[in-house]
Amino acid sequence: MISAKKLCKDYSGKDILINVDLTINRGRKIGLVGRNGCGKSTLFRLLNGIEEPTSGSIEIQNEAVGYIPQEFSFPDEMVGVYLEKKLESKWDMYKIDLLVNKVKFVNYDPYQNLNTLSEGQKMKIKLIEIMLTDPTIIFIDEPTNHLDIEGIMWLEYYIKTLSQSVVMISHDRYFLNGVVDEIWEIDKQSIIKFVGDYDNYRIEKMKLIEKWDQEYILFLKHKKQLETLLENVHKIKDGKKRGRAVGAVKKRIDREIESDKKEKYISKKIKNLEFETDVHVGKLMVRFENVTKKYGDNLVFENLNFEVRGKEKVWLYGPNGAGKTTIIKMIIGEEETTEGEIKIGNNMKIGYYSQVQSELDSDKAVLQEFMDKTGCYYGSAYGYLRKFLFDKEAVKKKVKFLSPGERARFAFSIFAYKDYDLLILDEPDNHLDIETKEVLEKSLSDFKGTILIVSHDRYFVEEIGVNKILNLEEGILTSN
Question: Distances from the Cα of 77 to the Cαs of 95, 162, 291, in angstroms?
Answer without folding.
Answer: 20, 29, 37
